[in-house]
Amino acid sequence: MPVLETIVDKDLPLKRDLELLAELLAATIREQAGIATAEQIESIRELALSYVQGSNPDAGKTLATSLSDLDPATTVALVRGFGYFSHLSNIAEDLHHNRRRRAHKIAGSAPQRGSIAAAINSLTARGVKANEIISMLGESLIAPVLTAHPTEVKRKTILDSHRAVAELLAERDRYAMTPEELLDNKAALERVLLALWQTREIRTFKLTVQDEIENGAAYFRNTFLHELPRLYLDLEDKLAALCEQNVSLPNFIQVGSWIGGDRDGNPFVTGDVLRYAVSRQSGIALDYYYQQCMKLENELSMSTRIVEVDSALQALADSATDEKDRKSEEPYRLAVSAVRARIFATAVKIGTFHHQLHDVANAPEYLNAQELLNDLEVIASSLKTHHAAIVAGGRLRRLQRAVSVFAFHLAPVDMRQHSGTHEKVISELFAHAGLEEYVRLDEASRRKVLLRELSSARPLMSQYVEYSSDVQKELDIYRAASEIQARYGEAVLPNYIISNCDSVSDMLEVAVLMKEVGLVQLVPKLSSKINIIPLFETIPDLRSAGQIMTELFAIPQWRSLLGCRGEVQEVMLGYSDSNKDGGYLTSNWELYKAELTLVDVFKAANFKMRLFHGRGGTVGRGGGPAHDAILAQPAGSVNGQIRITEQGEVITAKYADREVGRRNLEILIAATLEASFPEKAPPSNDVQERRQLMEKLSLCAYQAYRDLVYATPDFITYFREATPINEIPNLNIGSRPAARKSTNSIGDLRAIPWVFSWSQCRLMLPGWYGFGTAISEYLKESGDEGLVLLQQLYRDWPFFNSTISNMDMVLAKSDIAIAARYSELVHDQELAQRIFGRIKAEWQRTIDAVQAISKHGELLGDNPMLARSLENRLPYLDPLNHLQVELLKRLRSGEVSEEVQHAVHLTINGIAAGLRNSG
Q1: Which cofactors is this protein said to need (predicted)?
Q2: At 409, which helix (H) or strand (E)?
Q3: Which of 97-101, 353-357, 485-489 has the highest mean pLDDT?
Q4: HEC profile for 218-250?
Q5: Own/partner long-range contacts of 520-526 (Cβ < 8 Å, ≥24 apart)
Q6: Buried b (16+ CB within 10 A) or exposed e, 370-384
Q7: Cα separation of 535 and 381, whole Å?
Q8: C-alpha–C-alpha distance, residues 651 and 654, integer Å
Q9: Which residues lie closer than 8 Å to 318 by C-beta, 6 or more apart?
Q10: Cα–Cα 20 to 30 A to 852, which of 174, 187, 375, 578?
Q11: Widest CA span in the chain
């Protein structure tokens, strides 16, 4: 399986890795599936290659014909072969990106865009002082937040094998190997690939929330616990060198989680699940500290015959009981042993260790992470005082930072629920308390009675009342939250998010419910232990966000709640539902407008704003390069405060590899730094004109999108038959149902399967539809003058540039010829041709518009790295699409064997891997 030859010299190492993996995979297939199957895969790959390169105009038809007659066993083998190469290609590309970054640093070249060093250099060149950066970071919060939203189809077992392949490839790259070592390495790769081939790729069981908790925790264990402390310390050292003084930064960057706390549409998230999530996270943090202490004991072998120690260190050493006689001359080891014993006692007390560690003598547990930090500082201070500062600056310093960042809870967990659920709970509580019939009250009356409850010490809940099962379940969540904060501190559950928030009363309902469990308190004054956050998702909600927040800030009780939360109010913006509502361009513009409005509202109210961006992996759900996305935010909307969701397969792509994970964390920090100190643009008279133009384009794009998706008769039929939407729920990729309700409505379908399905059939419709019509209609009116203006906006306005660049990327991954094959799956071919014809025409209009505005002769004209990546992957990706079409035909015609269903799921897996940001 030779790779393409269109690779420049700097990419020769990637070519080498791809050829090695392809060779080993081909050998595995020959051995396991037979020579005939291996040769058939190569023949199909060559057809796909000629199809991609355009050298054979009939290649697509020939490819489809050759795949239609395959027997089930051969079909499965082919699907697995092409799917595995997509996975292996991703591994090799990630390794190559690391390789290129390392080479760049070794060469002493200028820091790369998106790095912290480049951001600091850029800011200092513009006159921003180091102390200004330090001050800004002191009041900042930057947080990627892992969610359980399901588009990651790979099992953890498969991900672990992928990690093993990456480590073996990196081993070949890091140092010169002897011939014997190369053979051993190659044999190890062969073993991993053979094990992969003999492992089932798709889960045979439905994921539970507990499984998702374990999967999410793995990224902390493998990446964040190691890399985040290093990142903090490196940044402190860079800033210290600039201002020539010691720098100690607060914990401004955190990694959060929704896993185990997000119950919007997920009936399996309960109070006990929330308790488990926090307990499991705590166990991972304490286990890490314990293991690091064991390593520190080995390193800190200083003897009192040679060195002196502080009295505080000696007292800590004297408190140790484990192996005291053997280490009597080694006080640092004894001190660390005492710390380790207390960590173990803490874990036992909290009940967070899920495996038996080496037992140590009884010791008092730590009441909080600060007590542990105090002991570690005793050790560090003694080392620094007695000529061992360089030792204190190694593992011990990293451990101190890890404890400071992750404490005893590892990651803050967000809670989330739909506003409609809160209304039902409040209604039932009111009913049993003999109060107003809440559901019949208008908005003004609701606010009045809710504010009354926020001022009353009388409880609404009663232990003597039997509530409905749904309400009991909700009430247990609030009780669990109160218990968890009491045990671990407020930092463990800092946020409560309200989905579909469309009124002030939606916010007040949650405050009342929190008051019932003591998370909102009346004495000595109204205060809250948790941030209550509105999520504005749909286009109508985004348009009314400013008014809702204005009315909320006018309420004295709410201002009091914010006063105890540092005068900060967080607002979450949803990218998925707004896109499903109105299409790509309108969604992006409405989000931008909402941010502009909120900046003004918060400034008038004198509160700090933190925006939480609910971005998905794919462009249709707000995806795209994070650095560009943050820089494209309106002025005043960042100011050191930003949270961003990381979802599905994007979590794996960004954080499975430590070096890649470090790079992605750097990107968030660098972009936030740059966005928080925006360049002062010269006064411009065209801002209003620019916004009026975007409003006009958005309205036209919105009408085109709505006309297709919501106003076209039987469009839902086309969608369900021309994509694998009906097969996706059986993939076992998440614990949450695919739809909020059991209806045939697009409105009730979750945005993730909506986008994921369009990706599978290579149309990517949510990422571009409507834009082509908007631009063509505008150019009919404005002509060449209008095109010049659009080109200028693309060049000078980060928002417009990012919007077009992301569309460019998603269009490059689309394939209208392959999409046409999926339209053949629609039973009513007259309907299929009518709808697909409209989609195809809009697809071409959009490509023409993007190329005209960007002035590139082809898609990805300014992104050669992605263009190369796609060129390498498409010969393996395209056959999977053709195979999926054939398999769907068989499945839907009645051939419902386990083998065919399994093969369909394998194609979904492989296509998602080949596209990467697919859902």
Answers
A1: Mg(2+)
A2: none
A3: 485-489
A4: HHHHHHHHHHHHHHHHHHHHHHHHHHCCCCCCC
A5: 520/454, 520/561, 522/454, 522/455, 522/457, 525/560, 525/564, 526/454, 526/455, 526/557, 526/560, 526/561
A6: eebbebbebbbebbe
A7: 46
A8: 5
A9: 334
A10: 578
A11: 92
Q: State how far the alpha carbon of 729 is from the alpha carbons of 205, 626, 696, 738, in Å.
A: 12, 29, 38, 6
Confidence of residue 43 (pLDDT cuts 50, 70, 90): confident
Give the whole-angstrom CA distance, residue 713 versus residue 725: 19
To 10 degrees, what angle do helices 504-516 and 419-432 make?
A: 60
Cis check: omega of the bond before 766, within 30 degrees of 0: no
Q: In the prediction, which pLDDT does 7 show?
A: 45
Q: In degrees rounded to 5, what are phi and psi of residue 752?
A: -65, -55
Nearest to 916 by CA among 803, 723, 759: 759
Using CA atoms, how far residue 647 sits from 380, 463, 837, 896, 918, in Å, is 39, 39, 33, 32, 11
Give the pLDDT score at 906: 87
For residues 917 and 619, the answer to whether their CB atoms sit within 8 Å is yes
- Catalytic, out of 15, 580, 882, 905: 580
Question: Is the pLDDT reported for residue 3 higher than 50?
Answer: no
- pLDDT for 350 equals 81
pLDDT at 581 over 80: yes
- Name the burial class of residue 815, with classes exposed (0-12), middle (13-18) and buried (19+) by CB atoms within 10 angstroms of its CB: buried
Which range has the worst mean pLDDT, 199-213, 449-463, 514-528?
199-213
Q: Mean of the per-residue pLDDT values for the chain? A: 89
From the list 406, 287, 409, the residue with the least C-alpha distance to 343 is 287
Q: Cα(511)–Cα(501) distance, rounded to whole angstroms?
A: 14
Please give the Cα distance from 769 to 219 (Å, whole number).
Answer: 35
The span from the CA of 903 to the CA of 72, in Å, is 8
pLDDT at 353 over 80: no
DSSP letter at 555 equals: -
pLDDT digits (tens, 9 = 90+) for 765-780: 999 999 999 999 999 9
pLDDT number for residue 6: 44
* Bridge partners (DSSP) listed for residue 642: 142, 611
Q: Which amino acid is at 361?
A: A
Classify 619 as helix, strand or coil. helix
Would you call 418 a catalytic residue per the annotation?
no
The lowest-confidence range among 579-583, 647-651, 747-751 is 747-751
149: annotated active-site residue: yes
What span, in angstroms and rounded, lies between the C-alpha atoms of 286 and 305?
Answer: 33
Given 15, 87, 96, 149, which residue is catalytic?
Answer: 149
pLDDT band per the 50, 70, 90 thresholds, residue 67? confident
Read off the tokens for 225. Answer: 């616990």
Instruction: Please name the residues in contact with 412: beta carbons below 8 A apart, sequence gap of 6 or more.
Output: 143, 254, 256, 257, 491, 492, 493, 494, 495
Over 90: is that where the pLDDT of 403 sits? yes
Distance CA 671, CA 351 (A): 40
pLDDT the model gives residue 773 = 98
Distance CA 898, CA 131 (A): 64
Structure tokens at 657: 């590899």
189 φ/ψ angles, rounded to the nearest 5 degrees: -60, -40
Neighbours of 267 (CB within 10 A): 11
DSSP 860: T
Model pLDDT for residues 597-631, shown as the tens digit of each residue: 999 999 999 999 999 998 866 655 556 778 888 98
CB 195 within 8 A of CB 32: no
pLDDT recorded at residue 326: 75
What pLDDT is recorded for position 740?
52
Decide: 309 and 266 in contact? Cβ < 8 Å. no
